[in-house]
Amino acid sequence: MDTVQKKRPLAAVIFDMDGLMFDTERIVKRSWDEAAPLLGMEPLGHHIYHTLGMNLARRRQYFKEACGPDFPFEEFTECYRGISREILRREGLPVKPGLYELLDCLKEKKIPMAVATSSSARHAGENLREAGVEQYFSCMITGDQVKRSKPDPEIYLLACRKLGVPPEEAMALEDSANGLRAALDAGVMAVMVPDLLTDLPELEPYLTAKLPSLTAVRDYIKKMWP
């Protein structure tokens, strides 16, 4: 799918972060696989496919339901975050191809940008600063600033309010089912850029577009909103 269902004005673009701007979901998956055996459990990386787009509170709930009420979520979280930090220290923050070119394109077109991520403000801020992209965004809404996690539309509605644009004139860039559902329910134009999940047949008919990369997003915007 690469065409707009109904042409609307484009007043703002809202970016998810993990799996969209940065190839960090794979690092989380690796760290879950490494952390779990240290705590006497089988590798847990496969659970990432069920938790993409969730904030910390919703992820805690997920693990308690999936692994039992005694699952040591806090201990597990502290352990895997330490492993993730070490991976990032060794390998660097993996920036998705086309991110800088897309940001420059939107800046040139004077289209405001925001971040709407389920990650914490601390984690998000560190990543944006390390990648050198913090200055592109008018605002950042994080998972610890909303009451309800994606797939609830709260985070996108709040981002639109902060940007001062109507939801129907904002575009959301997302890689997860939870994020895309949040965007669709907020009434924004939802664009999927696949990461760990490559196909979402139950959602794709409702999307504005499904594009293979951020480079393709840039080209798409230049074509549709010249």
TrEMBL record:
One Pfam entry name: Hydrolase
Q: Identify the keywords attached in UniProt to this record, alphabetized.
A: Hydrolase
ATP-binding recorded as keyword: no
| Highest taxon listed in the record's lineage | Bacteria
Query: In the record, what terms sit under GO molecular function?
Result: hydrolase activity
The parts of the chain that form a coiled coil are: none
Q: What is this protein called?
A: HAD-IA family hydrolase
Which InterPro entries does the record associate with it? HAD-like_sf, HAD-SF_hydro_IA, HAD_sf, PGP-like_dom2
Q: Does the record carry Ligase as a key word? A: no
